[in-house]
Predict the 3D structure of the following.
Amino acid sequence: MKPEALLHPTPAGLFCPIGRFHVDPVRPVERALITHGHSDHARAGHAKVLATRQTLDIMRLRYGEDFCGEEQAAAFGEEIDVEGVRVSFHPAGHVLGSAQIAIERQGLRIVVSGDYKRGVDPTCAPFVPVACDVFITEATFGLPVFHHPDPKDEIDKLLTSLKQFPERSHLVGAYALGKAQRVIRLIRDCGYHEPIFIHGALARLCDYYVGQGIDLGDIRPATVEKSSPDAFKGAVIVGPPSAFQDRWARRFNEPLIAFASGWMMVRQRAKQGGVELPLVISDHCDWPELLSTIEEIDPSEVWVTHGREEALVRWCELKNIPARPLHLVGYEDEGD
Amino acid sequence: MKPFATLLDRLVLTPSRNGKLTLLADYFRDTPDPDRGYGLAALAGGLDLKSVKPAMLRDLVLERMDPVLFQYSYDYVGDLAETISLVWDGTRKDEIDDEHQPRLGEVVTRMNSLGRTEVRPAVRDLLDKLDTSSRFAFLKLVTGALRIGVSARLAKQALSDMSGKDVTEIETLWHGLTPPYEPLFAWLEGRADKPVLATPAIFHSVMLANPVETGDLEKLDPADYAAEWKWDGIRVQMSSYGGTKKLYSRSGDDITGAFPDVVGSINFEGVIDGELLVGGTARSNSPTRTFSDLQQRLNRKTVTAKMLDDYPAFVRAYDLLFESDLDIRAETFFERRRRLADVIERAPHDRFDLSELVPFTTWDELDRIRVAPPDPVIEGVMIKRKDSPYQAGRLKGPWFKWKRDPYNIDAVMLYAQRGHGKRSSYYSDFTFGVWAETPDGEALVPVGKAYFGFTDAELEVLDKFVRDNTVDRFGPVRAVRADPDFGFVLEVAFEGINRSTRHKSGVAMRFPRIARLRQDKLPRDADRLSTLTAMVDAKAN
């Protein structure tokens, strides 16, 4: 059996014609298997959704009760039969609930890794390598320039800046699902126990993480009392990066804009975004991790989905590993 | 190297002056000698370091990396030094221990001791031993492209902040010291006496004037003040002692090499403050030429004989700081001027003249003189208290500058960009345009950019207009609606205007700022490019 017969790209996303399901479809479909809760992968409006319990919970939080027609939860490692295709979910280490999906039939196994990372993250289960014939990898940071440093060193930069600029409100941009909670957890692990203020867009997801047993310490809403504009002097405020360009940010005292993202590795990116304190913290693999993951799994073929496919495909060619880009559309490579 | 690299990383992204000062002062306080001295030299532009060509760096990286992958990386990052600093590790994770990285002082000493054939292996070795951020700093230093928005003046201000010493005292010493400035730091930290300078032909901080603002003059007695023309050249200082003759810009940059005609004619000893101009001196009865003629001579390391012939330079003397080696800065302006007149009288007539005094009895009279000066290269008057000592810096009171009214045009807002720091949530940087005949007919062409001049309340209005009328986005920039009958008219004031080959419109304004919001006007009422070119032409006549 050819791998393309089991799974191939379509405009709606990766499609398995035998099992009649899509993986992370970008438009409403009959049956969707979802790797994780980020909005470019998990969309509302599918008839049936199969995902991990946490991913389903997150979709419900974001889209409401009727986010799909019918849901089915998959436990990590559990084998599920979908119309004669064997499907199983395995931790991807990206955000809470994130999974790789193994799709198997007649001895051919394809693993869709979704978004994944190899670095330590106390807010989600670590990536588990799954042996397979075809490994489908993302390439968000698929260029040799990307080397994510130790996230604790990055948080130390933030804590140093708080000492250097005790008057300024430190606004840390972090995507609402995953990154924000990881950053808060990291700040706690680095010994900072003051209250951390959060933008309203983060509240429900932070509550959910806490409910799942991830301690975020003292977190409070970043709402202002009209009488005390100085309330946030020297405080850490975490919010979605888009909010910092908005009128919302005006309530803070001399805000110092930090942004936790793998893109912060490149100075010009930071500069264009008006970021004063770039924190290179990513929920994706950096270049060395992408390469070592491929070497470790040792698939007979690599398919590359979204991101900088060309460089990763080139590297595979140099290593004599058959590889091709899938040119999937609809996944934002900005979302880190 | 690590502390310096960390400092650079922060400085590049810190827009506010105070933020930069904090970062610099912390660095100078926490970093040991001699590293901080070399760091200071690198920031203030006085670091002498063996340079490395970009081609060699590219060769080095391609020794270990696939050229296709390198090209993908370079295309993405866009900066050679940054690309190399990021890809150098290859597939290896950073395993470099901060404690064992080469220090900045070691790097400088090592690079400067290398023979020609040793450079390549040494650069490779240093790249291996430094971490990503230090590699970037190292590459920027050896390629001589450290652009981080820190002036020498700001670095000195940080030294003053960290030590409590007066910045003018630091400025006075500055040009007599060399990296790594250990005696300077020892003095700043109170561990040693003030360093004694070997040569007095050094730069001394200049005295600056404040602009006249409404109500400033009413309280002052005109009889206490003298006036001089304010010439549109560049402010310079000539310093001559024991055969050493130097010409400095007002910020202390040594521009001796570019003006051999002036420096070679110095026949006096002492320190003179004056205006560098092109053309002929008053006493040789030839006209003073425009700032754009002077520009032909600026920013050059060397100068051709033809340049010297076509654009002869001279100095119009304003003040005398040292008479030979005698410091007379504490004398009154009139006393210094009397002695200056003697020095200039004996100096070559074609290269030096004395700035003339403008007689007046009332402020109203001076105001009339100011707006109609006898020479187009005059941009206003200087008002100096007759008994004022020469004090470095910009003190309010003893000296004023009173310019002719700044230039004004009505322009239309075309693009807006968010500001920095406390303005980061506001669209506060505006590109504006005027009407011009283009191949596609009558259109608005961009002529400049301004990001100050408005009040906070006006900024709210501007910001709201941008948010409500965005028609396109290019990264951080928004294009706004600008039709003949709908758009935002801005009254833009500026200090001067010149022809420019670098700007599409062909003109470049000096210090443009938003003077008023003209919501009473429609874009169709805005000025035309021909108005601006006429201003350039008027200046040239």
Remarks:
- The CA atoms of residues 15 and 421 of chain B lie 7 Å apart.
- The mean pLDDT of chain B is 89.
- The interface with chain A takes residues 9-10, 12-15, 19, 22-23, 26, 65-66, 68-70, 72-73, 76-79, 82-83, 86-87, 89-94, 132, 418, 420-422, 424-425, 475-476 of chain B (CB under 8 Å).
